[in-house]
Fold this protein.
Amino acid sequence: MKNMKLALIGYGKMGKAVEEEAVLRNHTISLVINDAGEWADKFHLLKTCDAAIEFTMPGVAVSNIFKCFDAGVPVVCGTTGWHDALEEVKSRCTQQNGTLFYASNFSPGVNMFFEINRRLAQLMNKLPEYEVKIEEIHHVQKLDAPSGTAITLANDIIGNIDRKSGWTNHPASNPAELEIASVREGQVTGVHTVTWDSAIDTIAIHHEAKNRKGFAIGAVLAAEFLAGKHGIYNMKDLLGL
């Protein structure tokens, strides 16, 4: 892969992890934006970049994505918690012939976990005696709950079993609701467990991120994948799933 000039929008723990992986892959960090107030002086630099990688907060993610569209720069967005605006973002991307890669989780391992989760849900549709729940655990600094990864897991289950019609982030009182329990503690990078429980046994699938490296590698691979492309992409496109 040729050297790319990358913009990092957000320079917290994830931004620094992305920087490390990008440099290891011989890319150049040409712009760092860590505060919305920096855009006035630095927006012109965004236009010189080959791609932007955005890991910030839900309240500013959409605005950052739109700035990338305005600059004509492909953007990889790893921020979660903004997907209620997804249709607006997709429409804007199409109108401006922009390029967007978004995912609830950029780890290749997690995306394999998603595939296992979907297949297990398909099998469990035939076994109504099993009740399903999701638990996600993250560090105390994570602002959104449930996590984007947990929502993806939940939606994929709901889409494959007839007895669930929605999810809740509280103890489920309606059998049609899929319960997601969110725990915030310490510096946990990310743990997700899907449990199928019956009177006779329990089946669980589990993913634990040991560090941010997998997310960072996936985000850099996504930026490389976008070279020369227009449109909207996700991890299925990158991994060929």
